[in-house]
Amino acid sequence: xxxxxxxxxxxxxxxxxxxxxxxxxxxxxxxxxxxxxxxxxxxxxxxxxxxxxxxxxxxxxxxxxxxxxxxxxxxxxxxxxxxxxxxxxxxxxxxxxxxxxxxxxxxxxxxxxxxxxxxxxxxxxxxxxxxxxxxxxxxxxxxxxxxxxxxxxxxxxxxxxxxxxxxxxxxxxxxxxxxxxxxxxxxxxxxxxxxxxxxxxxxxxxxxxxxxxxxxxxxxxxxxxxxxxxxxxxxxxxxxxxxxxxxxxxxxxxxxxxxxxxxxxxxxxxxxxxxxxxxxxxxxxxxxxxxxxxxxxxxxxxxxxxxxxxxxxxxxxxxxxxxxxxxxxxxxxxxxxxxxxxxxxxxxxxxxxxxxxxxxxxxxxxxxxxxxxxxxxxxxxxxxxxxxxxxxxxxxxxxxxxxxxxxxxxxxxxxxxxxxxxxxxxxxxxxxxxxxxxxxxxxxxxxxxxxxxxxxxxxxxxxxxxxxxxxxxxxxxxxxx
Length: 481
Fold this sequence. Notes:
Layout: H1 3-31, H2 34-54, H3 58-66, H4 71-91, H5 93-104, H6 108-111, H7 113-135, H8 142-162, H9 167-188, H10 200-209, H11 211-234, H12 237-246, H13 252-273, H14 277-304, H15 306-314, H16 322-328, H17 339-345, H18 349-374, H19 377-402, H20 406-409, H21 412-436, H22 440-461, H23 465-480
Helix pairs in contact: 1-8, 1-13, 2-7, 2-11, 2-12, 3-4, 3-7, 3-10, 4-7, 4-10, 7-9, 8-9, 11-18, 11-19, 13-14, 13-17, 14-21, 14-22, 15-16, 15-22, 16-19, 18-19, 21-22
């Protein structure tokens, strides 16, 4: 299968998974009581943190070693390392449950210690399984890998809703879903391997290789969840549930930006090796300018249609989440670049890691101060401030690396004009919507219209790279028919 087809399959699979995950959140927020839903969101945070700590770079190691010529020799060692790391939560379950119980001031984790430990163990292995399938050139099976467990998960939630099952049943369904991921992975990449290839040196190599990347990912993930950890410590479970819905990030953004900048990295690396700073800056700005036409309309639309989005995703039960959601989306304005791509290509991975540590520390300090002064909204403000401070810091660092001014390394004028235009357009479209209807589904139509109109206007006056790509792809499809 060609690289292009593999890429398309990966993007399709990720979008499918994101859509199914959103649908599951919609169901759970309506089905579970606020208290139980709050406990579920706390479990999700704990699971993400446990994965990032214990799987420390193993997905990167899996991709690297199973993509090599010696993958047959490394495969059994990857299995052994993943198995060993995955069972660690079972032995450390007491410590893990106590840490999260103390932070969230609950006994939920201790009361369900073994069930949660098994989920953590299964999820750690599954965290690397997607990369195993890709590295072993089984990408054509990705839609199946995504669809079967996710469909089971959704059917399980619907079953729980109809028969009025509690949160524990949902957690059991979650465990079975991870086990299905595990079984599918083993089935698709099943092949005979020589047990004599298992040796300590190769296992050590697999384990240590991805640690630098894993540390950065871990810091980034903890930083993303710091506001929720702080709110969970300072406030009751109902306030936490409301806040966690407000601090929700639309998952499609990561897929779009990740897909673009993963393609940019090899080109940036080649230019760095040739020391072509002007070309580097040109390519970097070109990628960022292209993202402006997607990210800025998305941000403005989410801010102006925050009420519609929250009510659609979480129901009127979480109407109090709207102010948090609206303010939280302002950080999208700072997300036109995926800065890790630049620092990796420039060979400055350690600097990127230090930036992540700084941002996490700043976020934590501001969270503690602002939450005590102005309440839960302070945690959102702290997150937004830390994001913009980090972006400014990274822009300054990029300007130094390229020996250029900050005016040259960031499309300031286009960025600012785009924000003004899209906020104005979204505001006008929202006024029209609110003057004729209050129906959520009508709101979704106007919200979609807001994004499309904003995208088309920016494509006309700011940059037309993405629009041209879509039009070209559409013409090819029509021509083939």
